[in-house]
Amino acid sequence: MIVEKLQNDLKEAMKSKDAVRLRTIRSLRAAIMAKEIEMRSGGDASISNEDALSVLHKQAKQRRDSIEQFVAAGRDDLRKTEEEELAVIEAYLPKQLSEEEVRTAVKDIIEATGASGMQDMGKVMGQAMGRLKGLADGNLVQKAARELLAS
Q: What is the CATH number of the domain that holds 140?
C-alpha cells in the first residue's frame, strides 16, 4: 500500500540525507493525513489505496500547475524545486499513457457512444475520465476529445 511505501521511503530518505525526497515525502504524507482526517467517520481513520493515489495525483497536478506559472514568471529557481518534487511524486504513480494511447482510447469511446460533434463533448469526457482516471492527465484527454470531435 502507498502509505506504507511512503513511510519506508521516508526512513530511507532520512538515512541517505536526500533532502528533496525527504521534503516531498513529508509533504505527501501530510496531504494524505489531511485527506484521512477529512474522511474520518466515527473515529475510524483509514484511507484506501485508491484515495491515497487520488491525493498523489492531486499533488502532482499542483506541481505541474506551479511549474507552468513559474515558467511564465521567469522564476527558474522555483520551477526547478517543483520539477524535483514532481519527479519524486511521479515515481509513486502508475505509468501514464502516452498521447497516442489516450487518442486511441478517446477514439474508441467516441465510436462506442456514437458521438458526432462538439455537442457530445460532455458524454465523451464523462466516460473517458472514468476509464482513464489515474492513467492520463485530464487536460490531455480533453485535448484529444476536442480534436477528434471537431474533425
A: 1.10.10.410
